[in-house]
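anyone seen this seq b4? input:
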Amino acid sequence: MHSFIPPERFFPYLTWNDVQVMPDKENVVIIQPVGAIEQHGPHLPLIVDAAIGVGVLGKALSQLDASIPAYALPNLFYGKSNEHWHFPGTITLSTQTLTATIMEVGESIYRAGFRKFVLMNSHGGQPQVMQMAARDLHVKYDDFLVFPLFTWRVPNITKDLLTVKEAEQGMHAGDAETSIMLAILPEQVHLDKAVAEYPPEQSESTLLSWEGKLPVAWVTRDISKSGVIGDPTTATKEKGDRILESVANGWVQVIKDIYTFRLPQPS
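predicted toks r here
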């Protein structure tokens, strides 16, 4: 049931008595991995985002100093994936349902006495949902510290291993995701079916972009026929092993920082 998570770090394996008597509960780090079940082109399974989150978190928790109390909740597999719903197999929650789920899980964690809650999101279509839910939880409980984090944004070497074009334009099912899946679930990757596809070029005179500071709302069907936005054909397991190790190391540091974090007191 714990998948890649070390069993001693898997929150559901605790008893209610364990939770009740846990020392220094306000500094224990509770981590909710949030993924998605959505298309990732013809070569990757629907589980990519969920698998990457749990794979990275499991490796990070296995390397974390045993003196730092941190626990993983069960992965939340479903996310807000309606940008992909024109491709069969995608399962999506609405913004309202995902927000309500995060809020109610967070409230349960707070009610148990914990005060540090991490939303470890691995799906690029829902960071804003995590941020709004986190803010609302903190507004409701002012001593509840909630961290809406994106799995890939910890310090890591991923972009150093990609081509310039892939680093700039690869957004979905490209080299990085395919490589790390070769490290996590290699038997579910079908490189013989991989195709490269980038979004249409924007006019050089426009300030708008598909992603970035001045984006336009889009769904995947608008910019990709295959469901791929990037180049997975250059992916390798060796690259994936290095990416997994690097991102996990970044998460070890982030968990340490959250454990010692305290809200500043205005002077």
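The longest helix spans residues 237-260. The chain is about 35% helix and 10% strand. kinda curious what u guys think
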